[in-house]
């Protein structure tokens, strides 16, 4: 209860920190305007002004929320502050998915934040799935250039018919350009926007070697500056409409695709591309594009590989130079938080 009260009292300050880190000048929505609780009951705590929400994970449950509508393309973002101290096994996620509608052919775009044994050393994973292509996972993982537990930073996903861009604040960290060879692996069906915190003990930290330790619970992640700039396809309360296809067709017909494709967050300028390459060279710990162990047939068609860059990666896709360095135990203590989440899909990540 003390943690929930503290969040409500500090929510305004949290929003101010998040605003300072915002990448683009985009409108935000109140929770009630754009989202609904997903699971966790009391472990989802909304700020008094309804502009922020705290997700808690404890022994009883994780928590999460979902957008009130499905969207066909758009720009989706949130400012997120991650749990502090010992967070091994904890997963915080901000993502788009239609898995509740298309169980075996779902699309998905993820930011997954993977906790660790050392304070603020969270690892971030991005995923791209289309038409149920989880067996051809397109994961990448990165270290962040800041401590994501000290203040909120903005994480954004641009999803257009032609390309996808993942942003950390104003820096693009990954671009996936639609390639004919991708076929249905490129997400193309309406998706809802999710935010969750859950127990990923089975895989999230060093392949499941280190589990969630509930001695440090509850774990808390704060979400603010919520943006939903997309073409509404159907209400999340009526997902059956998506299966019929009519709502997605209507969304496509009524969507301002030209406006989306020409917005600053959708255009990859030379300056942005240089910033992205610098980030990836210094911060990317794994990319599927160089993982010959999992995909012996070669890289995916959208991968922009080079022989020079390949030399910086092992045959299993891990970087030879960008590695997580262990920290001392001094920052451990009773800190931010853990529990049993609902979104327990296994992944191929380690932290």
UniProtKB/TrEMBL annotation:
What EC identifiers does the entry list?
2.4.1.207
What is the main EC category here? transferase
Keywords linked to the UniProt accession? Apoplast, Cell wall, Cell wall biogenesis/degradation, Disulfide bond, Glycosidase, Hydrolase, Secreted, Signal, Transferase
Cellular component, GO, one term: apoplast
Q: Where is the composition biased (Basic residues)?
A: 326-335
Q: Where in the cell is it found?
A: Secreted, Cell wall; Secreted, Extracellular space, Apoplast
Domain GH16 per the UniProt entry, residue ranges: 19-223
Protein name (Swiss-Prot/TrEMBL) = Xyloglucan endotransglucosylase/hydrolase
> Which organism is this protein's natural source?
Triticum aestivum (Wheat)
């Amino acid at each position: 209860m003390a943690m929930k009260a503290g969040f409500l009292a500090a929510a305004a300050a949290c929003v101010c920190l998040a605003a300072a880190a915002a990448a683009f000048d985009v409108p935000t929505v109140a929770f009630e305007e754009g989202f609904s609780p997903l699971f966790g009951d009391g472990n989802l705590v909304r700020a008094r002004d309804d502009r922020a929400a705290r997700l808690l994970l404890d022994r009883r449950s994780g928590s999460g929320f979902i957008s009130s509508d499905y969207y066909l393309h758009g720009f989706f973002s949130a400012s997120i502050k991650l749990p502090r101290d010992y967070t091994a096994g904890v997963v915080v996620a901000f993502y788009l998915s239609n898995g509740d509608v298309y169980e075996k052919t779902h699309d998905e775009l993820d930011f997954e934040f993977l906790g660790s044994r050392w304070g603020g050393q969270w690892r971030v994973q991005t995923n791209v799935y289309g038409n149920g292509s989880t067996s051809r996972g397109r994961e990448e993982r990165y270290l962040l250039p800041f401590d994501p537990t000290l203040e909120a930073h903005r994480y954004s996903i641009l999803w257009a018919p032609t390309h996808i861009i993942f942003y950390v604040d104003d820096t693009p960290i990954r671009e996936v350009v639609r390639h004919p060879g991708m076929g249905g692996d490129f997400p193309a069906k309406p998706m809802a926007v999710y935010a969750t915190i859950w127990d990923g003990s089975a895989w999230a930290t060093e392949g499941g070697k280190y589990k969630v330790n509930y001695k440090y619970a509850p774990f808390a992640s704060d979400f603010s500056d919520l943006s939903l700039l997309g073409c509404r396809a159907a209400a999340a309360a009526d997902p059956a409409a998506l299966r019929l296809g009519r709502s997605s067709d209507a969304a496509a017909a009524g969507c301002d695709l030209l406006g989306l494709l020409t917005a600053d967050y959708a255009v990859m300028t030379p300056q942005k591309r240089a910033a992205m390459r610098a980030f990836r060279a210094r911060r990317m710990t794994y990319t599927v594009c160089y993982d010959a162990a999992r995909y012996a047939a070669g890289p995916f068609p959208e991968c922009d590989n080079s022989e020079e860059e390949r030399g910086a990666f092992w045959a299993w896709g891990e970087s030879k130079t960008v590695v997580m360095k262990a920290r001392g135990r001094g920052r451990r203590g009773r800190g931010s938080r853990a529990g049993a989440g609902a979104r327990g899909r296994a992944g191929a990540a380690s932290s």
